[in-house]
Amino acid sequence: MRTSTILTAAVLLTTLTACSGDPDPASNTAVSTPTASTPTATTPTPSPTPTPTPTPITPKPTPTAKPKPAGPRAADGYNYQSCRDAVCEIYVKTGSRVPVKRSVAGFSTLVVSRVAPTGVDFGGSTANTSVSAGGQQPGFDFRLNNLKVTTVAINNETAILHLRPA
């Protein structure tokens, strides 16, 4: 009787395994576990060939020039050398040093000591004398010896000065 029970269990197990259409890879049955010494009859599935993804083209940033303030434009921009003849229109900031014609101004460098919404301070000096203007607002002229300086506009920390002989 014992042999028939084992035989019935073996037939039942074989039938259940054969009827099962989808093997459960998570099951741990000892019926047909391949080992390292037992070759398996499975066919390897080919891995899909990877398709190269196109690399997006990133545009290179274009170099930008020194930003100019909004509003009126200075005819000579930041070209302070254009003032050597005492005729120019330039952007200035606090600390700007502008070369001017000594025979007109009485000094050779116009120094901007402050640019603020409340006005522009500038001046020049020699070993013996100094001249300066403070709080110059847009639309006003100031004469430094024979150099006439007009504040054209103030925009935040930048101003436009127009220089010419008086």
Automatic annotation (TrEMBL):
Keywords: Signal. Residues 45-70 have a biased composition (Pro residues). Residues 25-44 have a biased composition (Low complexity). Residues 18-77 are annotated as: Disordered. It comes from the Bacteria. Residues 1-20 form the signal peptide. This is Uncharacterized protein. It comes from Kribbella caucasensis. The lineage of its organism: Bacteria, Bacillati, Actinomycetota, Actinomycetes, Propionibacteriales.
